[in-house]
Amino acid sequence: MTSPDDTTASTATTAPRAITTDRAPRPAGAYSQGIEAAGLVWTAGFGPQDPATGAVADTVGEQTAQVLRNVLAVLAEQGLDASDIVKATVHLQHLHRDFEEFNRAYEEFFTPPYPVRTTVGSDLMNILVEIDVVAVRRPTEDQSVPSTSPRA
Question: Mind listing the GO molecular function terms for this protein (predicted)?
Answer without folding.
Answer: deaminase activity
